Amino acid sequence: MHALAEVSRSLGIGEFLLLGKGEDAAGGRDKSSILADALEALIGAVYLDAGSVAAHRVVRSLMENLIEEAIPHLEMFDAKTRLQELCARLNLPAPVYDVEGEGPDHERLFTATVLVNGKRHGLGDGRTKKAAEQIAAVGAYNALVALHNA
Question: How many Cα atoms within 13 Å fall on the side-chain side of residue 4?
């Protein structure tokens, strides 16, 4: 959603939206969810009008830079799987995640600890449990690689 909203902002789509008075007054023209939905609808309209090839071209031209920027960071998104595979390869037990949250519900911050064979090897903070676990898994993976020269 964030990527679609970012592209939508760069195109200035917000100024062309038809919004109710209340939503407009509440800053709806710059709400990420509304902007992402508007861009999605625009791409859908291109698809219906000109077909999948044209829609693909539009998506590619709008998103290409964001995709290129994201590629180096993809390994982090599957860090838990990579850590689990490393543990199996090293004949270690599966990693265990301990996650604690603090703060009010609307500003919760989670801290994840990764234990492998009863020892802490990674620590991570994030706005969601999943994000904290992924960051902790990256740290644990790097620590185990260094420890075992893997």
Answer: 15
- Give the model's pLDDT for residue 100: 97
Which superfamily does 2-74 belong to? Ribonuclease III domain (1.10.1520.10)
Which residue type sits at 65?
A: N
Beta-carbon contacts of residue 78 (< 8 Å; ≥ 6 apart): none
What residue spans define the domains of the chain? 2-74, 78-148
What average pLDDT score do residues 25-46 get? 96
As a whole number of angstroms, the distance between CA 102 and CA 63 comes to 35
Q: What's the rounded mean pLDDT across residues 84-111?
A: 94
Measured in residues, the chain has a length of: 150
**CATH topology for the 78-148 domain:** Double Stranded RNA Binding Domain (3.30.160)
Instruction: Give how far Cα 40 sits from Cα of 15, 46, 105, 112, 113, Å.
Output: 16, 10, 29, 34, 37
Q: Which two tokens stand for residue 90?
A: 């090293």
Q: Does position 53 have pLDDT exceeding 90, yes or no?
A: yes
The structure tokens 């100024």 sit at: 15
Give the single-character DSSP code of 81.
H
